[in-house]
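#onboarding

Welcome to the new folks! Below is a worked example of what a typical request in this channel looks like: someone posts a single protein sequence, and someone else replies with the predicted structure as tokens. Don't worry about understanding the tokens yet, we'll cover that in week two.

Example request:
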Amino acid sequence: MSGYGPFDGFTLMAIALAVFLSALVSLIGTSGRKRNIALGEAQVGDLAEMTGIRDPKRLQEVFGPPDMGRVWRSVTLLDVRRARTPEGWLMSSDLVDYGCMAAAALSMFVSHRLVPAILLLALGIQVAGWIVSTRLPR
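Example response:
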């Protein structure tokens, strides 16, 4: 990938490890948010990350008003999936994260000329997800 022999495998391995760890952290965060929604304790941050809707007023339009504790108790995971935007897919989709992990694992064991491109695509997806998540309401 770098064109310089001794560092070529190191670069691919470092990118693969970064993609794998980023996807793993994303999966852990997503499972916690899914748990909160399933237990009826969905807050603004949970719904914003799972759907990609950053505006709290827009969240109220989609899911209705929260209760007095600023918690949506009647929202289900199916409701969240229906309201998901492309940004929500980047931040909190298990399929996207598993695909990135598969690309990282593939790059560690398969040597093909397209593997670095696939790995860089997975890296771009992970970086885009993290950048989008910095603009979420707290």
